[in-house]
Amino acid sequence: MTATTTERAIEIRVGPEDFTLQAEYDALCASNTDDGAVVCFVGRVRDLNDGDAVQRLHLEHYPGMTEAVLTRLADQATERWPLNRIRIIHRVGDLHPADQIVFVGVSSPHRQAAFDGASFLMDCLKTEAPFWKKETGPDGTSRWLDARQSDETLAKRWT
Amino acid sequence: MSHLVHVKFFARLREELGVAGLEVPVEEAPDLDALKHWLGEAHPHWQPMLSGRLLTAVNQTMTQTNQPLKPGDEVALFPPVTGG
After folding, report:
1. Which terminal residue of chain B, N or C, has fewer Cβ atoms less than 10 Å from its own Cβ?
2. Predicted confidence (pLDDT) per residue in B42-70, tens digit
3. Does B61 touch chain A (CB under 8 A)?
4. Which CATH number is associated with domain A21-156?
């Protein structure tokens, strides 16, 4: 028996379509005997934000730049950590409480690289990828969300 | 070849200005600072919205410094991002 070499792969998807955690996990693992660690993160819509009830969440993005930024972040992650596979999915359009918004999944031979790589991708996605959220409450009023200083602080720890 | 710079606005800024974008002759906007100045001069009622905290991308790459513009460049102005 000879050891197989796992094909390295980066997959970026931006669009209205939902995703299935199992399918993404399977894609990270398919024909992959090198990686002993898989970390998957899913971000979801909450029904309460800053004390306000949320009935609908609209996600706008900058087509083209969004994909370019996510691809660059994935490339940076593979330079910093031994990650063989990275999958990033971000939904856009109208979403509702409990809907999935974002998926980040990575595979690596080692656990700490997988945790750190996934954290890096999520932290930097939140401050660099051109997405914007607009919430609508039960009374029909809408508001654009403001960027959070805490997100800036989290992203800065990777610089 | 077009002599225009393509300007795009996103999210809250797009809604406040009421347009998704516009074209500016590069002679009026030889660099980013000149472009922002021109936008405020041409549309004085935009000044308050343009003076808020905005991010800038040139050809889909974020930039924090002034830089020269050339015909066909795509400049985007938008509020700090809130995805994820």
Report:
1. N
2. 999 999 999 989 999 999 999 999 999 99
3. yes
4. 3.90.1170.40
